[in-house]
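Changelog-linked ticket: 4'-deoxy-4'-aminopyridoxal-5'-phosphate example.
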Amino acid sequence: TTPSASAADPAAGAAVKAADRAHVFHSWSAQGLIDPLPIAGAEGSYFWDYDGNRYLDFSSQLVNTNIGHQHPKVVAAIQEQAAKLCTIAPGFAVDVRSEAARLVAERTPGDLDKIFFTNGGAEAVENAVRMARLHTGRAKVLSAYRSYHGATATAINLTGDPRRWPSDTASAGVIHFWGPFLYRSAFHAENEQQECERALAHLEQTIAFEGPQSIAAIILETVPGTAGIMVPPAGYLAGVREICDRHGIVFILDEVMAGFGRTGHWFAADHFGVTPDLLTFAKGVNSGYVPLGGVAISAEIAATFDQRPYPGGLTYSGHPLACASAVATMNAMAEERIVENAADIGERVIGPALREIAERHPSVGEVRGLGVFWALDLVKNKETREPLVPYNAAGAANAPMAEFAAACKRGGLWPFVNMNRTHVVPACTVTEAEAKEGLAALDEALTAADAHT
Ligand code: PMP
């Protein structure tokens, strides 16, 4: 099924694109300015277009296809479930739904043993916030700058970067604070320990001045993803856990992007030995083969809704096709040791290669990450750390990043680029040979970024 020259069919590709432009309204885009690439197929770590170009997928489709494209066990599970039962309302007990919930509960840390299913990440965040507000009887939610939590009403207001601005309704009770990020420290810290201490002190002070009795929840991405893969310093998340406990605040960890193997553990929280009260997930739970997300709920919060109804639901909550694909995904990941592969390739191949690349390229300011979850922070100047493009740059101002992305694609690599960063986020199934192929293409493409230093 890999493309060959004879498989190329540019006319079919042109027809697919024309049909798209006629009626499809795209996410996050000026509809008249986009040029979507028609896609003919995908397998494992690759996808391909109708012109015979094959791309090594270093984006995992918005950091989603942790198990790679078209995993045969997952495809078969969806087909079998479709033949058996395509849909049923959330109020019924169904074998695949309870099995998916059991497998998620078994993998999440601590006592997060009840699972509320949604159709994706933003809905998971919406419901986690509602649970926290009902559990505490409080309204405010604290979230970090340099974060993304989704594009629905509350989730976009929680988001701590310019993706929020056009939709910002100054949503009642959303308060932003600074998390730790030594490379661009909000606290002028000089080392990780200082950054950690100052970030925790800043959070304490924010809570003191907002009034702890008014705060329902603190939500954090365990390792912030699209905002730049900032691995928190040792002790930070444990410190937030302690602050939450002291003030009766619900601690929500958003693992929509970092969960299900991406960081080389089932959950990023496992790296830090921290258990939140609520954990949101999506993406890697079934690699998005069918839309699925959810909230893993602690025993204490679940008990709040034991004798009192939970006032929220979705027609497709725990959809049988989505749950069947999740069961097959989680089982295949265990059988094929895919989480272990992500840890091994990340530590042994990707991390060292990126650090070596950074030494040779004047445009690479910092390398950050773990597992198959890495970012290169591109700069004009390594000394001043001035970003390669201005914050939230668009159009001509963003040309250096656009040129870099185009160079990657010419080299057969599909990158994940956001602002002045490129993220290295292949499937958790990526092989050593594939990782090296992609890193070589990235190395070559970075000369386009170097030209702007
Ligand atoms: N939270 C995080 C950390 C995410 O990365 C994303 C998506 N990139 C979301 C929430 C929203 O998920 P969805 O797009 O499935 O609504």
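Closing comment: Example verified and attached. The chain has a mean pLDDT of 97. The chain has two domains: 5-70+337-450, 72-335.
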